[in-house]
Amino acid sequence: MDRAPPPPRPPPSSRRRRVLAFLAVASASVLPWAPGLDFPFSLDDQVGVVQNPVVDGSVSLIRILRTNSWGSPPEFRHTPNYRPLSVATLAVTRALWDLRPAAYRAFNALVLAGLSMLLLALLFRLGQPLWPALLATTWFALHPLHVEVAMFAVNREEALVGLFLLAFLWITLDGTSLVPEPARRPCAPGLRWAGCFLLALAAALSKENGVLALGIAALVPLAWPRRTVPGLLRWVPLLAALGALSLYVPMRLGALGHLGASFIPLQDNPLAATPMPGRLAPALGVLAMALGLTLWPDRLTVDWSGSVMPLARDWGDPLAWAGLAIVTAAVGIFLLCRRRRPVIALGLLVAALGWLPSSHLLFPSSIVFGERLLLLPHAGLAIALSGVLTRWRPDSLPRGIRVIPVALAAGALFLLGLRTAARASDHASPERLYAASLAARPGSPRLWVNLGVERFRANRNPEAEAAFRRALDLDPEDAEAHLGLGRALARRGRGREAEAEFREALRLRPRFPVAWANLCLVLASQGRDEEALPACDLACREGVDVEEALSHLETAGQCRMGVPPTDPGGVRDSRP
User: How confident is residue 560, by pLDDT bands cut at 50, 70 and 90?
Assistant: First the structure.
């Protein structure tokens, strides 16, 4: 049987321009946050890396596969996520470079650069001209909403799942009419199935939304069927995705005991307790706000909890109607462009699929919103943007003004890069990150508590007290804020007031070992030995160090620590 002739190669000048384009995109993916690679860990990295029992310098794949992404700590009650591949990369990084933040962020930056270059290659494969593809991909690489993915070590899961899903899309396109004939490279069905299976499994093991490979494999060949390909071959990616899912589900069940979330704190997502259809209006409002931040990335914060999000409570809120208008327009544009401008339609489909797991439409997500969740939807929007820009041809303009739109596009990308670099610089220290986020969105009691903890650790007690009181103004039932305020008061010699704060924290959260430890210390410092000893004992049972108080009471032999001491001043962030 005669083989099909190989596709024509682009001329050398075109190849050189493409190489330069890949280098430009890779640089845009790394340079904005390169100066901040060695900034200290904060927030989720403390739980996901520093304190994670399976990211401890060894690389035990069996332990990683059997636990949730936090290492299944018994005292950490939160939505259990199963992301063993992402956690394994963290474990390898720690085994090689211990707790050097630069190593973790460099890995993230490299994965983001790979994702951006794969996006550019995908656009070339779809037949997009150089400049539209380059501009759209550079917009994606420079967007400020992706700073979280680069600067938080644990957020590499977003970049990994995006990389694997785009690679899965690359193979899926072979069975469709989207790829121009010269760019088609058919391979053996078995090899194609194996590639799709491994990519779909890797995506799911990186993060839960990796199961979107199933949607890509089903919807893309359905929307753009290639009639010359036998039906079975066209559905090889779908069969591979189903095979990967059949392996992933029992792995997740074995590690977590269930598939969905067992507990979602209402602080993280107030919509968790709202069934459909009551969840529809606020979910559309979140979509409208996400698109608004995409177009104008201002007032960014690391905490988009329920106290910060401007949720649409009902259909009387304009945000809900704006979200509905966005969905209606997207569906209309998709139907209009599916045949005539398929790249635009494909981009909208990828963006919609990427947003679906966090949209709250099918089920409530573990958090109401997070900037990092927009990475995959933005990849789809970049594909659509390239299709839109393809309609604009600079050579159709008079020679004298051709440079104007090019200069405007370059200037817009430059300003976008500056905004990204400024946002990355906010991560210079935990205190600076919290302060910058609160300056943009001051309604987060969680961030006020964390800001107070950082000021307490720096021995700036009046400022710490003010931060804790601000948190309590926003949420009087925040046990962490009462604990922090009590510690700040105790350090300033106001023991009676501190005791009241610790007791209030324990009223709100009876099983709060750090609060018991601090109550023990403040009672012991006042000579109230008989009252202090039970508090010390309760703290010791939970493994919190109260040796100072026990020494004062001369009863150290009556209490045994079961685990190494922990820092009573630490306040954990509970985001997934």
Answer: very low
Taken as a whole, the chain contains a residue count of 576
Q: Which residues pair with 225 in a beta bridge?
A: 176
The string of DSSP letters for 390-426 reads HT--GGGS-GGGTHHHHHHHHHHHHHHHHHHHHHHHG
**Structural domain includes residue 468:** yes
Contacts of 202 (CB under 8 A, 6+ apart): 85, 160, 164, 210
Contact between 64 and 89 (Cβ < 8 Å):
no
Residue 485 located in a structural domain: yes
Q: So what's the pLDDT on residue 25?
A: 93
Q: Is residue 179, in this structure, part of any structural domain at all?
A: no
CATH of residue 535's domain is 1.25.40.10
Residue numbers of the domain that contains 504: 444-558
pTM of the shown model: 0.88
Query: Which stretch, 210-224, 247-261, 302-316, 526-540, has highest mean pLDDT?
Result: 210-224
Q: Which residues contact 365 (CB under 8 A, 6 or more apart)?
A: 269, 357, 358, 359
Q: What is the DSSP letter of 56?
A: S
CA distance 2 to 498: 85
What's the number of domains the chain is made of?
1
Q: How confident is the model at residue 57 (pLDDT cuts 50, 70, 90)?
A: confident
pLDDT of residue 176: 86
Residue 553 falls inside a structural domain: yes
